[in-house]
Amino acid sequence: MSDRTLQDELLADLRQAAPVPDAPPRAESPAPEPDHTPALQIRVTPLRWSCPRVRAVREPHPTLELSAGPVQISLTR
Amino acid sequence: MRLAVCSSKGGVGKTTTAANLAVALARHGRVLAVDVDPQDSLGRAFGVVAKGRDDSLSALLEDPAADPRTVVRQDVAPGLDLLPAHPSLEPVATQLAAMGGLTTSVRRALRPLRGDYDHVVLDTRGDLGGLTLAAVCAADAVLSVFTDDPGSALGVARVAAFLEQHRAYENTSAVLVGAACVLWDRRGGAARQVVGALEGTGLPLLETRVPLSRRVVTSTLAKRPIVLSTPASPAATAYVALADEVLAAAERVSA
Fold this sequence. Notes:
heterodimer, A: 1 helix, B: 255 residues
């Protein structure tokens, strides 16, 4: 076995012996999860009319958008 | 600087290093050497042997009201005082651990002496148990040592992980100021491989290497660290350079 291999093996052992230490127990409560309460939003855009359409969006949250003339309705789950 | 000399492995030269660094640091100011190993080897390196628990570190850990100055041996070398250990340290530590007071015990015992010394050097046993943690908690800097034995390099890596863990737990604020090769055989390939592997870990390696020397063994038998007994020898010169390097590293870290 070459010197280089022996050194590499020792280095691997050393990296195993000195792992990233575990985080200490945290006293604080974990950060709250983002609010995913379903939301209904209605917007009226008198200066911008659109053709009637329905669109589904997946990101960042599943949303159904309905547009007709000056009215846009979005329902986020 | 309050320096603990640590390795998770025994027989790698911790006590010899602690004794010689203590002597070398005494050139810069008043130094206290503290033996936190029940095998009481640091005291023996200076010819000091505690008779029992009452004249050793054990007494201070057992009785927090005890005056450490009654136990400290004055001037075991120029500028150097010594607080010896005794085998009774083992049961005393076990008792303190059961009561939850071991971790901070050495720090508490040394507190009355804080203003008396410029530097404190703590020798530890070859493990990462409760007494070693107590020594580290009394320190602000840690030096680990290794030889050409791959097991001693693992000892360095384990000290680094141990320190990180206990810094995270806020048991100590001590920092690993470096790891030093204290048995450097420039003709042998093993030491080079050990150094090469340690370099790959990113751990702080010190430049000073103490050369392999039979005089170090002879000085231990003579109960006079080589920095005292043969100050012009290459090993003694290296220990003096190592003390300076450790001190500079500790000052950098604390800045």
